[in-house]
Amino acid sequence: MPIISKGFRGRPGGRDPELPPGQYRTTDFPVLSTGPSPHVDPDRWSLTLVTEAGETSTWDRQALLALPQERPTVDIHCVTKWSKFGTSWRGVSLDTLLDGVSTAASFVKVASYGGYTTNLPLEDLRGGRAWVVHEFDGRPLTPEHGGPVRLLVPHLYFWKSAKWVRELQLLTQDEPGFWETNGYHDYGDPWREQRYQGD
Ligand SMILES: Nc1nc2c(c(=O)[nH]1)N[C@H]1C(S)=C(S)[C@@H](COP(=O)(O)O)O[C@H]1N2
Ligand SMILES: [Mo]
């Protein structure tokens, strides 16, 4: 008799081991934005990485598509408690973008078209854990979900995955972003349920 049977997950009071604490599963794809979706023309989109020394690297759509593409399939967890399992994306690993960038920075401030910002440790963009993505489910990323290009950092709450990503600023000191200055946790690990400051 297997220790984990099929019925285990659904049992009242039993915990779904794939679901972070306090989350529930959803199969739809809710849209969460603080304001209207900025219209970003794919041909005018670019991403600029700025190091703490002020050195910049910029990729436009063509440059992004010329880099090695990956197809991550990941679970995503929103702080409003929905989790969506097995989402599939296509884009470029941050390891690829950071390759050859000389930096001693420990933090990143991410800025989007439209003004949204969020922060995270630079380390969290490395190790095959973060991408800039331009496709969802085999189709170009739609504007409401951050198209033409968004950040995808699925091991942190989904507010860290900035839609309409425009700039990555490498910093020696942490600088809180939009939600982080509005009471949300600086790091946001869903497995440790770091929703708000002090969690
Ligand atoms: N630029 C920008 N990025 C953003 C947001 C936003 O308001 N603006 N909301 C964040 C939050 S709280 C979540 S849960 C996800 C939602 O992504 P979705 O709308 O594709 O589900 O985007 C994140 N990235
Ligand atoms: Mo969210």
Q: What features would you describe in this structure?
A:
It is a single chain. With 199 residues, the protein is mostly beta strands. The chain has a single domain, classed as Sulfite Oxidase, Chain A, domain 2 (Alpha-Beta Complex), CATH 3.90.420.10. Helices cover 6% and strands 29% of the residues. It is built from two helices and eleven strands; from the N terminus they run βββαββαββββββ. The chain has helices at 61-66, 94-98; strands at 24-25, 46-50, 56-60, 73-77, 82-93, 107-112, 117-121, 131-136, 139-140, 150-152, 165-171. The strands form two sheets. Strands 1, 4, 5, 8, 9 and 10 form a six-stranded mixed β-sheet that branches. Strands 3-2-11-6-7 form a five-stranded mixed β-sheet. The N and C termini lie far apart (39 Å). Residues 1-11 have low confidence and may be disordered. Bound molecules: the ligand Nc1nc2c(c(=O)[nH]1)N[C@H]1C(S)=C(S)[C@@H](COP(=O)(O)O)O[C@H]1N2 and molybdenum atom. Molybdenum atom is lined by residues 32, 78-80, 158-159.
Protein traits:
199 residues, mainly beta, Sulfite Oxidase, Chain A, domain 2, 5-stranded mixed beta sheet, 2 helices, globular, disordered N terminus, binds ligand MTE, binds molybdenum atom
Q: Which whole number gives the mean pLDDT?
A: 94
Query: How many helix segments?
Result: 2
The CATH architecture can be named as: Alpha-Beta Complex
At the fold tier of CATH, the topology name is Sulfite Oxidase, Chain A, domain 2
Structural class: mainly beta
End-to-end CA span: 39 Å
Q: What is the CATH superfamily? A: Oxidoreductase, molybdopterin-binding domain
Shape: globular
Which ions and ligands are bound to the chains? the ligand Nc1nc2c(c(=O)[nH]1)N[C@H]1C(S)=C(S)[C@@H](COP(=O)(O)O)O[C@H]1N2, molybdenum atom
Count of discrete domains: 1
Measured as a percent range, the helix fraction is: under 10%
Tell me the total number of β-strands.
11
> What's the alpha carbon Rg, rounded to whole Å?
17 Å
User: How would you spell out the order of helices and strands?
Assistant: EEEHEEHEEEEEE
